[in-house]
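B., you asked whether I could sanity-check this one before it goes into the benchmark set. Here's the sequence:
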Amino acid sequence: MTIELAENRPLPRKRIAAIDVARGVALLAMASYHFTWDLEFFGYASAGLTEFGGWKLYARCIASTFLFLVGVSLFLAHGKQIRWRGFWRRQGMVAGAALAITIATRFATPDSFIFFGILHQIALASLLGLAFLRLPALLTLAAAALVVAAPYYLRSPVFDHAALWWVGLSTVNPRSNDYVPLFPWFGAVLAGLALTKLAAGFGILAKLAEMSPGRWARPLTFIGRHSLAFYLIHQPFLIACVWLFSQVMPAQVETRQVNFLGSCQASCEQTQDTEFCTRYCVCMLDRLEGEGSLDRLYQNDRSPQLKAHVSELAGICTAATDGAGSGGEPQ
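And here's what the prediction gave me:
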């Protein structure tokens, strides 16, 4: 069977509603995650809830889907010929929105401001993705796999400088409320671009263009067509709602110690049982407080020295907990 490649088939001129619906679903999922994060931020949910386990996986799936659709849209818009005027207009809007988010979060949450979030990734990935528009789909897929795998093999202290955190290959992950670096996330954009090129070659895009979702999909289609506006508006709106609720029914204020124990417990229980994690986290808290390092952790100190020291304390507390669990005395 001969496969007719995308270059030999015209791309659909009609807007593909199914892609708008998919983007709308991804945006609503993102809003649900952000709302949970807001509840945690204001103290209505346990500390560390959205950082580990199912919520962390949920967040990664949402971001991957959204970036995959960026690759889809990039090929649909410029697969045959780059429309530079439209590209730069959209690029300016996305980059401007990313800069606005950086400035706003720098004042609102200076210890964890967004210096390279998903909008920053979209702006950079859209520009870099142009270089892959003319490459064979399978080669682009191979590049996507390499980009995703890069952080597992190419991390280096060379990238630990703050000016290079956007690359995603540092040995220390910076503290940020939305960190979506080039590696591995650019891989999702390349995957979307490559698979859309394959879909065009098989005539799948033409079939999708003929599909007309029912009336139930209209809200999703509307959101999907105005994705940037929805993204910029939804989080301030959700934060405002939770803040207003907190003025009427404020959450119980927890100390740093309680927050640390909750976050530590949630992280530890990804690999250990509850009893072990309870003893281990108490050990870590006692040692960090005893030497004054707990404050440094909450002051966004991401220095390699502190990271190495915390890892050393983790080893000590792990050994002490193991010893206590086997009948020995904690160190």
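One thing to flag: Confidence is low (pLDDT under 50) at residues 1-7. Otherwise nothing jumped out at me.
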